[in-house]
Design brief:
Blueprint: E1 7-8, E2 12-20, E3 24-31, E4 36-43, H1 45-48, H2 51-65, E5 75-81, E6 84-90, E7 94-96, H3 97-104, H4 109-128, E8 131-132, E9 141-144, E10 149-151, E11 158-159, H5 178-181, H6 188-204, H7 214-223, H8 229-232, H9 238-247, H10 259-271, H11 284-288, H12 294-302, H13 327-337, H14 342-350, H15 354-382, H16 390-415, E12 419-421, H17 430-439, E13 445-450, E14 460-464, E15 470-472, E16 477-482, E17 487-489, H18 498-507, E18 511-517, E19 527-531, E20 537-539, E21 543-549, E22 554-556, H19 565-574, E23 578-584, E24 593-598, E25 601-602, E26 607-609, E27 613-619, E28 633-638, E29 649-655, E30 661-666, E31 675-680, E32 685-692, E33 695-703
Parallel strand pairs: 13-16, 18-21, 23-27
Antiparallel strand pairs: 1-2, 2-3, 3-4, 4-6, 5-6, 7-9, 8-11, 9-10, 12-15, 14-16, 17-20, 19-21, 22-26, 24-25, 24-27, 28-31, 29-30, 29-32, 32-33
Length: 707
């Protein structure tokens, strides 16, 4: 463990330990060179002397350092100091998706879709760079405080090529793909399978396969049938269920071919939750069952998925001059010893794939025939049987000698290559990048194009090796030049609620910026317009300004209670309102104003939309009843509010536990006119609960006057 205050590379100051994994510890640190907080992953002491584990640790940095995407945790630096191997990464303030699911039980569909799209976007970027994560699970997804989803821990990621075959069942067993569990070929579709299992857990709150041992779980991934999500929760959209079932097909060729295809369908779920656009290769039942033979079972037993084998083991040292098998083989054999007699180990060591054995036999025979023909030809030439002479033989020997000399010369040239630090060229134009690299002696330059949301067309958005690393000057330097960001048309969100448009834009990796304006035509809380306008081409990461209606502009209504009809009418018209009148029985003097009403609510002294039509309730005097105590009295009461700031606040009330009604919008200048009209029998008590900006601030109790 590193202590607080320790410096690495005279630059990174360790602040505190924030996590620990199977082979590394993670620290919060401060980068004093760039004045920012970072995360530093340090290989544990017990593994730092083990070359195999150090190599694996550096693979994590090399895999992730080449990736630059908003949904992937960035890797800034890698180094070694005093036997301490470390990686410097982006520090994310948040929690893992696993903890988030545990906190909420299961996620809402829109939230799960948003998270899934962001994970798939990160994977798409990795796959385009030919990086397979191979360990996608909720524990490796971080939910930042600002709502961003980040994929992390490329610890067992591997550059993909046509010959990549896994040698161990890498990845966590509850999320592992069938081909990984069998120790077979893994590609981008393996990550899609693991993401499918993660999506299943997000919307159901459980993993589809579980068991007492890791081997039991792995076998279920290979030949088990999962319970369809809608059987656990019928409210899950059919299209989302189909997406998950397609991602988790047993055969890779029945899954989505790429993360981009998956993202397209996930986005459609938001608009067409019950649409029939997800095409499955065959029925779930047909595609889910795979019968394993004895070889498959043996392969699974060999994988490092046995319960209790979570921590990595040291690679055994050589003995008697003979190097033991690599770390992964050694671990498999140790696992096998715990399950089978020792003789089986020896048999397994001797096992050879029958098909491979036949191929090797044929190649051996062909090679032997070719060798015999060549030898016969050389002897014949030397003997003059083919019109040649001894001089020809000498010429051949000389040519071979010259070739050897050339090879030696090339080897000497390679060994003499100068070691230099690779210059940072990200952000430069292609021409400038070439000049910079050539000036430093790097002439083996390859250019590849790709889409980038962060860099303009023609700019270098990535490079390999990364700037700052020291390599031989004849090393191939690949620069990735931006062809611009991928664009799509902005939809029309007019009339949607603020929450709906925020969710939709976030799911598209767009940044919503909400502003509010008064509108006489658009209902309060609904979208008026967006900037840019609907139909405009946008790309991920763009900021979209959304104008939300605050309703019609509110104007203070003069307090006219107890005034004559004529005087009250004139005051309201002077304030810009239209006026109608209505007779009303009350204890007010006949002919005077008992109340002013807008949309059924009292607004006298409050606010109403500019130009609104207000109704004056003109008192006709108290109702004539036989029992005086049965009379109803209406009176206006000041709520006595004091906001203590200059902001506008909405005020509403609930009288005697009745339905909530709005009194309008007030600020420090108008709060003195914030009054409520109440009615009741003389001497009765009325309870008014007051709400400011939707939050209850308590109750007020008033007594109805005797009249």
């Amino acid at each position: 463990m590193l202590v607080s205050g320790r410096y690495l590379a005279d630059r990174y100051e360790i602040i505190e330990n924030i996590g620990s994994g199977g082979m590394s510890d993670v620290y919060k640190a401060k980068d004093h060179k760039l004045n920012r907080l970072v995360a530093v992953k340090v290989l544990k002491n017990e593994y730092s002397q083990d070359a195999a584990f150090v190599r694996k640790f550096r693979v994590e940095a090399q895999s992730a350092a080449g990736l630059s995407h908003p949904n992937i945790v960035g890797v800034y630096d890698v180094g070694e100091e005093d036997g301490i191997n470390y990686i410097v990464m982006e520090l994310i303030q948040g929690i893992t998706l696993k903890k988030y699911i545990e906190m909420k039980g299961k996620l809402e569909i829109r939230e799960a879709l948003n998270i899934s799209i962001q994970i798939a976007s990160g994977l798409s970027a990795a796959h385009q760079n030919r990086i397979i994560h191979r360990d996608i699970k909720p524990q490796n997804i971080i939910m930042s405080k600002d709502g961003k989803v980040k994929v992390t821990d490329f610890g067992i990621a591997k550059v993909a090529d046509s010959t990549t075959v896994t040698t161990t069942a890498a990845g966590s067993v509850h999320y592992i793909s069938p081909e990984q569990a069998r120790g077979g070929y893994s590609d981008a579709r393996s990550d899609i399978y693991s993401l499918g299992i993660t999506m299943y857990e997000m919307i159901t709150g459980r993993v589809p396969f579980d068991g007492e041992t890791n081997v039991a779980v792995a076998l279920q991934h290979i030949q088990g049938e999962m319970t369809p999500p809608r059987q656990l929760d019928p409210t899950i959209p059919r299209s989302f269920e189909k997406i998950i079932l397609k991602c988790t097909q047993k055969k890779p060729d029945r899954r989505y071919a790429s993360a981009k295809e998956l993202i397209a369908d996930l986005r459609r779920v938001l608009a067409e939750p019950d649409g029939n656009y997800v095409m499955l290769g065959s029925s779930v039942a047909d595609a889910s069952t795979v019968v394993m033979d004895e070889n498959d079972l043996r392969n699974v037993r060999r994988q490092n998925v046995q319960s209790g084998q979570n921590a990595p083991k040291r690679e055994p040292a050589s003995k008697n001059g003979v190097q033991r098998p690599p770390q992964d083989d050694y671990m498999r054999r140790q696992n096998l010893k715990n399950q089978e007699p020792e003789e089986d180990d020896e048999d397994d060591d001797k096992e050879v794939n029958p098909a491979l054995e036949k191929v090797m036999l044929v190649l051996g025979i062909v090679g032997a025939i070719i060798l015999v023909v060549v030898v016969a030809f050389i002897i014949g030439r030397a003997a003059g049987l083919f019109g040649g002479s001894t001089n020809d033989t000498e010429t051949v020997i000389e040519s071979e000698s010259e070739s050897e000399s050339e090879s030696e010369s090339e080897s000497e040239t390679e060994s003499d290559a100068e070691m230099k630090e690779v210059p940072e060229v990200i952000g430069s134009s292609e021409a400038t990048a070439r000049q910079t690299l050539t000036r430093e002696g790097f002439t083996n330059i390859t250019v590849e194009e790709g889409q980038s949301d962060d860099y303009d067309e023609g700019q270098v958005y990535d490079q390999s090796p990364r700037g700052g690393l020291t390599v031989a000057t004849d090393t191939e330097i690949t620069i990735y030049v931006s062809s611009g960001s991928e664009t799509f048309q902005l939809e029309d969100y007019s009339g949607d609620t603020a929450e709906q448009v925020q969710t939709a834009l976030t799911a598209l990796n767009l940044i919503p910026n909400l502003t509010y304006e008064y509108s006489d035509d658009v209902q309060e809380g609904r979208v008026i317009s967006t900037d840019p306008e609907p139909g405009t081409e946008v790309s991920e990461g763009d900021r979209i300004t959304v104008v939300i209606s605050s309703g019609a502009e509110q104007v203070t209504v003069p307090y006219v209670i107890d005034q004559t009809e004529a005087a009250a009418t004139q005051r309201l018209r002077d304030a810009g309102f239209s006026v109608t009148t209505q007779s009303f029985e009350s204890n007010k003097t006949a002919g005077t104003v008992a109340d002013v009403v807008y949309n059924g609510s009292s607004v006298s002294g409050g606010t109403a939309p500019s130009g609104a039509t207000l109704t004056l309730l003109i008192s006709t005097g108290p109702a004539q009843t036989q029992e005086t105590q049965a009379q109803t009295v209406t009176q206006s009461e000041d709520l006595g509010l004091d906001f203590g700031d200059d902001e506008d606040h909405t005020v509403s009330v609930s009288i005697n536990g009745g339905s909530e009604r709005s009194l309008g919008t007030y600020n420090s200048d108008t709060v003195g006119n914030c009054r409520v009209t109440i009615s009741g029998r003389p001497g009765s008590t009325i309870t008014v609960e007051v709400f400011v900006d939707g939050e209850s601030i308590g109750e007020r109790t008033f007594t109805i006057n005797e009249g």
